[in-house]
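Lab notebook, bench 4. We co-purified these components, and the gel suggests they stay together. Before we commit to crystallization screens, I want a quick structural picture of the whole thing.
Request: model the full complex, all chains together.
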Amino acid sequence: MTKNKENNTEALILDAAKDIFQHKGMEGARMQEIADKAGINKAMLHYYYRSKQKLFEAVFKSAINLMAPKVVEIINTEEHLFDKIRNFTDKYITFISKHSYIPLFIINELRRNPEILKTTLDHNFDVSVRDKLREEIAILIQNKEIKPISAEQLFLDVISLCVFPIITKPLMTVILDKNNKQYDEIITQRKKYVADFIINAIKY
Amino acid sequence: MTKNKENNTEALILDAAKDIFQHKGMEGARMQEIADKAGINKAMLHYYYRSKQKLFEAVFKSAINLMAPKVVEIINTEEHLFDKIRNFTDKYITFISKHSYIPLFIINELRRNPEILKTTLDHNFDVSVRDKLREEIAILIQNKEIKPISAEQLFLDVISLCVFPIITKPLMTVILDKNNKQYDEIITQRKKYVADFIINAIKY
DNA sequence: GTCTATAATTTGATAGAC
DNA sequence: GTCTATCAAATTATAGAC
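Here is the predicted assembly.
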């Protein structure tokens, strides 16, 4: 069937493009390299995606749509905040470790083009999710379960502690004088460590 | 004097190259753009630095030599750990805010070329600094002033909480629904907030 | 839909005059 | 040391056969 073949090649190209773009960025990536990785001809990239820019945008959207739901998913559960934190740090560190190139890819592209998110993220991360977290925190503060902190700062803390040590692995292995395996073990330990750290920091 | 003129043009080129490379990366930067910014001819870049790669390396070394001493400086004081943390987070967030493009520049280049640090950083961040921090933490644990934590994890915590929210500003303004000014205010508040957060997390 | 061949442009680098 | 002019290579994009 023609339709299957179309989808197959198109998906093949996108997979190859993800790999190359996410590792080398927009400027560092070469269309020829993507074609080679996909095992097809360079002309096909233009047949399906018209230009390098359009292909890149498809990859970027795919990256955003992979990452954003993971954050929302856990915030939207009905657990106690402390359980949310434990769940999130564990799952998110595992997830980011598997896709360690994606956060940097997103951060970099956003610096090049700060507008690109406005057409992509708004639907995933809408007002209700933010408000829900703010309310939950407000109640816990009232009940004196946690210290008076802002939801924004806590959100930044959680994401920072999970993501930054993973994306800076090449730097941190040198600074901390660890080999790859030793550093991976440090990251594994963080799955539990970070949750305890945060909860100790905010609880009364 | 000829010598002055030499240094002047050379420095002019390096300044322009810092600006362009640190914002656009190795592949995104254009020699022509650097020449324009320096107000001189493109041929001059090659006269002083021979190739794009060599010019880039000069910029990278300059970035490392700007960042690394700041970390060592504060760790090497004789203050109590809690004061070190307060001092460091305050000064480091201020410093990184002023040079917000440099951390990402270093992280990205290290991913492209993980070997480059071995000839640059080793002298700045040597064994004695690491050992000193480890010892100090060991003593505080023994004295039951802080919970039993590893120096490596604490180091990662401190750097992550300071740097990540700054380099992800374009992403976080959208997620948290803040404008530039509001987000800068959040970062300013972190100068005190982060220290309290960390100390609460580790103290008995 | 897929391929080969090639056009069109960009860009790092150099030659050579002053 | 500095400039103009130009080369040579790389790279995106397209034309056209099958």
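Residues 1-5 of chain B have pLDDT under 50 and may be disordered. Worth comparing against the SEC data before the next meeting. Chain B has two domains: 1-50, 57-202.
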